[in-house]
Amino acid sequence: MDHLWVEQETLAPKIGVVIPAYFSATPSDEMVRRLLWMTLSDGHHYSPPENVWVVVDGDARTARIVEEIREQLTLRQGAAFNVLPLAENQGKLGAIRRGIAALLAERPDIEYVIIRDGDGDHAAADIPALARAAGQLVAAYGHSRLIVIGARNSRHRPMGWIRGELETLLDGVTVDALAYHLARQGRALNLSHCRGDAVPDLSSGYKVYGRQAAVELFVEH
């Protein structure tokens, strides 16, 4: 067995999860409840409930349904995730920032911060593979200033053709900008850890931040 392999029981306590949650008035209560249940019900298998923060981004209905699910999971499992309700909508980035700050303040032993969407799109079962990939990169480079992104098999299928094309264009521009910036410093952009796609899926919301990267990006700035 590879010496970098980490068993799940050892890995799980090192993982923190932040889930920004906001739903517009369009979906029904039942649909919102179903999507949140898909997101939250089995997360305890991959990270302890006390390491999971759901940030409700200024929406009373979402907050109510999140609390209902939290009560159900507490009865079933004996514990459940933390809830951070925001008084006003701060947007996804603002919610993530607040959630990461709360998580790292409460759990100083967290090594990997995972961001998942609240709409059931990101399977909790993928958490160990993403965290192990981050751990191998930490071992290879000697620091945790890194981000691992869970690439989608298709940008178009979940979002439609237009949105998929826009995200592909944005990702391509981002890669070109990074390559240009590094070239001006006499350095080359290393894409060796990316999949073989023509354009890396940088826009995917399923991300793992090494602790150092999370602190520098979301706490110190």
CATH class membership of the largest domain: Alpha Beta
Overall mean pLDDT stands at 93
Strand order of the largest sheet: 3-2-1-4-6-5
| CATH-defined topology of the largest domain | Spore Coat Polysaccharide Biosynthesis Protein SpsA, Chain A
Count all strands and give the number: 6
Poorly predicted parts: none
Query: Based on helices, strands and strand pairing, what is the structural class?
Result: alpha/beta
Total number of helices: 8
Write the layout of secondary structure elements.
Blueprint: H1 8-11, E1 15-21, H2 29-40, E2 52-57, H3 60-77, E3 82-86, H4 91-106, E4 112-115, H5 127-141, E5 147-149, H6 156-159, H7 161-183, E6 207-210, H8 211-219
Parallel strand pairs: 1-2, 1-4, 2-3
Antiparallel strand pairs: 4-6, 5-6
Helix pairs in contact: 2-3, 4-8
